[in-house]
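Thread amino acids onto this structure.
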């Protein structure tokens, strides 16, 4: 039987599609299992061999769970909005929908060739109005909600309005931007606009002034991960920090729950720690500082209020509103210059940069405990979004404050007995307090911490602050609210119009989706408005509940619609829920359907989403949980981060000044320049010289200095990139070796969670393994020959060893060792000349998650009428795995000298006797009587002489 993989794979892919083999429905008679991949952004370049790595792993697991009797949901879709498609549209004038659709078709074609068990009937595309209907719906729900800390959930904004009407802004334990004070009567006296502005301070989706990464050349705000070294990832344009009025989501309200929820999910500790650090819970106190000779006061947050006596300067974030108020006239130019320079750095870059920079404001703050005047500086190591954007600097016990003080020659006061601060700051988490206050600076009735241990000092200082109304004890989080506006065309439209007061109002839910309008260009308008400002039909007719011509805006019944669009993460934050019920036009997902599928049991994707997508999805899911839309508070129960497949680049070596290329091992006598060469014209590091000449006109006349007629290329592991000519298209591998070979080989490259280089040098071995498998069924003849004889003990042992190994490996995602186990088993069965039905039929079931096409073919050739996905995963029998003979290592004084074989279960005294009488023992005994003999059953005999 010939292994005609092209014919086999085409046949079964068509069969699976025609018979809807992978479509799944809710089935209460079976336990459910939900497997999900982080869905791709469909780029024009298509897939390279690194992209399917996680998909293959999830597909193996999905197929395995189905064989184990689970009802498996394994969907796929496309994260279809984004900046790349928009930029391509700007360059070509082609609508981004056209290019996105074309790219999706290309991805689908490539994915289908690899034989995935996706249920394509559930496909979602974030640019589909039927999909983003529910993103807009969720946004309106967030706009109409506030967060109550007492109830630990989102609540309707109407409840807050009722509270204001009854008691005004009495102390409320709710999430907000600014704490207001007003009575019920004052609330009722406010205008409608004033009320809406106050409510905006509490809404979960709100308009607010926030610092953003602004790229003038792209005309849009960028997320942190879209900025590299101060330049846009797309196009390499300068990016600056800018304060803009933007839609935001109050993610910070959920910080505590996001942190606590990490203890309930099965993620790696490293990923959990990344999120813990990003969320950044800090227990501390807020204190108010007055400014000398000024009515201005400002608040700082500190986790170490006990270090108040060590404060020698204050620092403001460059973007703080206090900068303008506190900058003296004589410092104005220096401050302005510094702030302009800071705008060119993202917050992430500022956090990573250890270079000390800063500028003095010319103002002084008053220490509320000591009454001393302290200089106020500005530095980019303080961020506006964390705490209050101002800090009290304690250089004796903080490394960044210490570096700043040393650089600008500011005082440093030690606060811990015996600490040495001559070279660096001292970690003051324990020890006895000193200089608190310094000798001679005591005040009557003032705070005294000297002699106290640090924990005692912290508690006493917090108590002093509250009793003397200097501030309050508080828990702070590093997590910021998410900026949710983008000045782009290709994104979800906000379902919002602006009323006669200029305040945002949501479109009625029954009018959703609000679809993206047509525009003449995908650029900002000439007056600087986002691209939607170009739409001729982008106004809301409130009387008729529909979109109408922009020219008809009268601010009476026809109003301007929002011109910004939502960011990329809007569509990806809840897509996993939509997969459960993708065709429902009444809800994001039916409650009964969601109750069945619940949260995602296994989620696979890259580590790069740890602090973006995964935070936003968890927030979004918790909000929907508060609304009763979903049954589980956490969206992803188990998360696996697959590693990256790196490129394996090849090099040719051109002799300088010539068009002659010298082979790797002959290049040393020559002055050469290494050049990247297309890896697709290199096989096992041997260059196809004729293909090289045809690859680039520059090399048409190339000559070669070869090794025995072969040109050997050099190689290096680098990122897979077009510029390095090391991108490998999976279509090429599938065409040459088949999808099953690709699937097995990607798993064989190494542990799933590790990054590893793509190296085609080993792929031939995997392909030969599949040929060897097929040969079991034919004995290397054209016929298909299967024996119904009973298997031997040796054959059963080989099979059951495989079943046990692969079952364990799949459950632990050790797919690379499974491939090795398959190879060992096939070699053993080949040596035994085994083609017995009882063995090979079970073998193909075990292989089917990894190589589904050949497994399906062999399954049907064995006479089965149903598809192999309907088979049952086999169990192993330990009786077949018992060893008849075991190998003992015989040692003398702890050093292994020889091995011997004995029957399994040999008694201790018999093992001793066998070791002493073995023909090799006499040499090491030297006629001496052993002092002691130690036997480890079935493993070791150690003779002490």
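Threaded sequence (945 positions):
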């Amino acid at each position: 039987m010939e292994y005609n993989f092209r014919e086999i794979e085409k046949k079964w892919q068509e069969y699976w599609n025609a018979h809807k083999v992978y479509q799944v429905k809710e089935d209460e008679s079976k336990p459910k299992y939900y497997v999900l991949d982080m869905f791709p952004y469909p780029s024009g370049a298509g897939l390279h061999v690194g992209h399917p790595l996680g998909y293959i792993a999830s597909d193996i697991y999905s197929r395995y769970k189905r064989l184990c009797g689970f009802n498996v949901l394994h969907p796929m879709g496309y994260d279809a909005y984004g900046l790349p498609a928009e930029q391509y549209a700007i360059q070509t004038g082609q609508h981004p929908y056209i290019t996105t659709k074309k790219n999706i078709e290309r991805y689908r074609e490539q994915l289908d060739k690899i034989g995935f068990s996706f249920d394509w009937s559930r496909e979602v595309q974030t640019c589909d109005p039927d999909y983003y209907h529910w993103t807009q719906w969720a946004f309106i729900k967030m706009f109409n909600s506030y967060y109550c800390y007492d109830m630990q959930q989102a609540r309707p904004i109407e409840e807050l309005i009722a509270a204001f009407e009854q008691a005004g802004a009495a102390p409320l334990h709710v999430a907000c931007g600014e704490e207001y004070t007003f009575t019920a009567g004052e609330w009722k006296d406010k205008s409608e606009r004033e009320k809406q502005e106050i409510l905006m301070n509490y809404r979960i989706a709100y308009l607010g002034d926030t610092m953003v990464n602004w790229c003038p050349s792209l005309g849009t705000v960028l997320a942190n991960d879209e900025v590299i070294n101060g330049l846009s990832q797309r196009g390499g344009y300068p990016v600056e920090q800018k304060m803009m009025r933007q839609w935001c989501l109050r993610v910070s309200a959920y910080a505590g729950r996001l942190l606590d929820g990490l203890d309930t999910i099965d993620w790696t500790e490293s990923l959990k720690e990344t999120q813990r650090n990003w969320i950044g819970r800090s227990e501390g106190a807020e204190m108010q500082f007055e400014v000398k000779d000024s009515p201005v006061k400002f608040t700082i947050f500190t986790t170490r209020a006990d270090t108040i006596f060590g404060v020698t300067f204050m620092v403001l974030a460059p973007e703080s509103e206090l900068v303008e108020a506190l900058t003296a006239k004589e410092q104005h130019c220096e401050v302005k210059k510094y702030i302009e320079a800071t705008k060119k750095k993202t917050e992430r870059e500022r956090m990573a940069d250890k270079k000390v920079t800063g500028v003095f404001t010319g103002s002084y703050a008053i220490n509320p405990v000591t009454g001393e005047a302290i200089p106020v500086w500005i530095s980019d190591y303080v961020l506006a979004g964390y705490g209050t954007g101002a800090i009290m600097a304690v250089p004796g016990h903080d490394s960044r404050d210490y570096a700043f003080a040393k650089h600008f020659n500011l005082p440093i006061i030690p606060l811990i007995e015996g600490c040495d601060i001559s070279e660096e700051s001292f970690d003051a988490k324990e020890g006895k307090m000193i200089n608190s206050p310094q000798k001679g600076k005591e005040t009557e009735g003032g705070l005294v911490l000297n002699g106290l241990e640090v924990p005692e000092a912290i508690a006493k200082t917090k108590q002093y602050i509250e009793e003397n109304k200097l501030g309050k004890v508080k828990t702070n989080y590093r997590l910021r609210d998410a900026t949710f506006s983008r000045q782009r065309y290709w994104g979800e439209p906000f379902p919002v119009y602006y009323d006669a007061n200029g305040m945002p109002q949501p479109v009625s839910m029954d009018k959703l989706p609000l679809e993206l309008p047509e525009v003449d260009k995908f650029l900002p308008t000439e007056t600087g408005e986002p691209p939607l400002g170009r739409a001729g039909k982008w106004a809301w007719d409130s009387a008729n509940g529909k979109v109408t011509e922009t020219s008809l805006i009268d601010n009476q019944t026809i109003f301007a619609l929002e011109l910004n669009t939502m960011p990329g993460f809007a569509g990806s934050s809840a897509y996993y829920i939509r997969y459960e019920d993708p065709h429902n036009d009444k809800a994001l997902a039916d409650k009964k359907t969601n109750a069945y599928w619940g949260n995602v049991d296994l989620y696979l994707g890259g580590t790069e989403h740890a602090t973006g997508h995964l935070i936003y999805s968890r927030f979004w899911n918790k909000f929907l949980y508060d609304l009763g839309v979903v049954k589980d508070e956490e969206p992803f129960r188990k998360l696996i981060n697959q590693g990256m497949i790196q490129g394996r680049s090849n090099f040719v070596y051109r002799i300088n000044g010539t068009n002659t290329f010298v082979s790797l091992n002959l290049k040393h006598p020559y002055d050469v320049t290494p050049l990247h060469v297309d890896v697709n014209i290199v096989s096992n590091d041997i260059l196809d010289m004729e293909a090289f000449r045809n690859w680039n006109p520059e090399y048409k006349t190339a000559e070669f200095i070869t090794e025995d007629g072969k040109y050997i290329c050099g190689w290096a592991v680098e990122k897979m990139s077009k510029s390095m000519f090391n991108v490998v298209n999976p279509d090429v591998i599938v065409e040459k070796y088949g999808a099953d070979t690709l699937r097995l080989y990607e798993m064989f490259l190494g542990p799933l969670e590790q990054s590893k280089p793509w190296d085609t040098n080993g792929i031939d071995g995997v392909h030969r393994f599949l040929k060897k498998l097929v040969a079991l069924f034919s004995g290397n003849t054209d016929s298909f020959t299967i024996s119904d004889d009973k298997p031997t003990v040796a054959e059963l042992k080989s099979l059951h060893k495989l079943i046990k190994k692969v079952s364990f490996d799949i459950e632990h995602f050790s797919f690379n060792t499974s491939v090795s186990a398959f190879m060992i088993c096939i070699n053993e069965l080949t040596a035994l000349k085994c083609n017995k039905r009882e063995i090979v039929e079970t073998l193909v079931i075990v292989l089917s998650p990894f190589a589904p096409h050949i497994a399906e073919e062999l399954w049907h050739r064995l006479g089965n009428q149903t598809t192999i996905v309907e088979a049952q995963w086999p169990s192993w029998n330990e009786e077949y795995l018992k060893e008849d003979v075991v190998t003992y290592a015989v040692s003398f004084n702890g050093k292994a000298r020889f091995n011997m074989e004995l029957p399994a279960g040999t008694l201790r005294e018999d093992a001793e006797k066998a070791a002493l009488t073995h023909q090799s023992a006499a040499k090491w005994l030297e006629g001496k009587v052993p002092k002691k003999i130690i036997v480890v059953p079935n493993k070791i005999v150690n003779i002490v002489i």
